[in-house]
Specification:
- This protein has one helix at 7-13, and strands spanning 18-28, 36-47, 52-60, 63-72, 76-83, 89-97, 100-107, 110-123, 136-137.
- It is mainly beta.
- The N and C termini lie far apart (36 Å).
- 20% of the residues are buried.
- Residues 128-135 have low confidence and may be disordered.
C-alpha cells in the first residue's frame, strides 16, 4: 500500500514552495538564576517568489509550536511562533553570519530580547534521500 503524500510535500515537488529545517539554541532566562541554553528544531515552508514563510513547526523544551507569518531574505529571517493551547506569540529575528543565523526572540513572558542561534537548511525536494549527503546549509 502506498502512503499518500501530505499537501506540503506535493507543493514542494511542484516547485511552489521550498522546505527548510531549522535547529538551534536559545537562552531561556526563566529556568533559573543563570539563563540556560534550550535546544529546538523544526521546519517551515518558504515561498521563494514572495519571500514569505508559510506553515511550520518547532519543538523544544516547552512543547510543539506553530511557525506563522514570517519572511526570509538572503541574510534576514523573521517569524512568529505560537504554542498549542497558549495565547502567546513569540517573535524571532535572525541575521545570517556565515552559516549560522544569530539573533533574538521576544516573548510576552519575559522582558527584553533574548539571544538565539540556529542553522537553517534547505531540504531536498526528495527528502527521503537525506542520508546521501546532498543536503546543504543556506
Amino acid at each position: 500500500m502506498k502512503i499518500p503524500k501530505a499537501q506540503w510535500l506535493l507543493d514542494v515537488e511542484k516547485g511552489e514552495v521550498d522546505l527548510y529545517s531549522i535547529a538551534g539554541l536559545f537562552l531561556d532566562p526563566t529556568l533559573g538564576k543563570t539563563p540556560l541554553a534550550v535546544a529546538f528544531s523544526g521546519y517551515f515552508k518558504f515561498d521563494r517568489k514572495n519571500y514569505r514563510i508559510g506553515a511550520g513547526q518547532i519543538c523544544d523544551y516547552y512543547g510543539i509550536s506553530r511557525i506563522e507569518d514570517g519572511f526570509m531574505e538572503r541574510d534576514l529571517l523573521e517569524f512568529e511562533k505560537r504554542y498549542e493551547g497558549r495565547n502567546c506569540t513569540i517573535s524571532y529575528r535572525f541575521r545570517k553570519k556565515g552559516k549560522i543565523w544569530t539573533g533574538h526572540f521576544v516573548s510576552p513572558r519575559v522582558n527584553g530580547e533574548h539571544p538565539i542561534e540556529a542553522i537553517v537548511t534547505l531540504v531536498d525536494a526528495d527528502a527521503f534521500h537525506v542520508v546521501d549527503g546532498r543536503m546543504r546549509n543556506v
